[in-house]
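User: Okay, second chain of the day. Same drill as before: sequence in, structure tokens out.
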Amino acid sequence: MRDEEHVGWERHFPVRYLLVREDIDGEEEGELWGRCAEVEGLFMDAPPLPREVLTLRGCPRESLLVQAVADSAEPVRLLGDGMLSIEPVDPSNDGPPRFWDLEDTAVLAQWPTPSDPGRVDIVVGTGVREDDCWGGKRLPSSPRFDLWFSSIGGDSPAGSCRSIDGLFTPRPRRPTEPVHLIGCEPAAPLLALLSRPLPQKGDPITLWRLDRHGRAMTGYRLDLDIVEARPSVLGGAHLGGLSYFEVTANLLREKGFTVVLR
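Assistant: Same drill. Structure tokens below.
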């Protein structure tokens, strides 16, 4: 698909974005799903992860982590962003490692491990995000918990622990912010989704940003989960007392609509 072929329409404002379904294997050209005058919410910061409390049990006292938060004259209280990995002692039996991101980690408390004075228990508040693309869901039979915090260890592990309380609990999904496609003219595949009751979960899509000549400058991957469609603020049909589901597909094709994606 040539992006320059889709930049012309009979409006007083230009096409600035194309909504394109791309072939992930690269065997076919992208399929046009819609044209848009503008996008609202694309460049907003992602909402922070929900705060959780974890207890790192049995951290070695000689580790950089314990030295920084417990054995220092000026203990570190803000560790910042970090990473946790659970490494199996026997990968052939227990599978690959598992990884978590720890966001804006802060030390809440620390004390000697009751069963081992040579180790320290550390309580932290943090945002937790598991990497679902790697590792299995089963805890290894003999796991090793390793922790990285660039604020105290750089690229090297900052410490380890024997177990972590609060890690394997159900957690809410990270909240998402909707993206609004302003003055959106849907093509046939998008019309097929809009003709069904909303909300409607779709496939991953790419939003191409066009320059003034209609050439694609960059692309943004989105999950096409449509939660609302309504007449566009830039002009559209008057729906009167009709609900969206009584509007015909031809009307949607001819008039600009604002589509809200989550």
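The longest strand covers residues 98-113.

User: Thanks, on to the next one.
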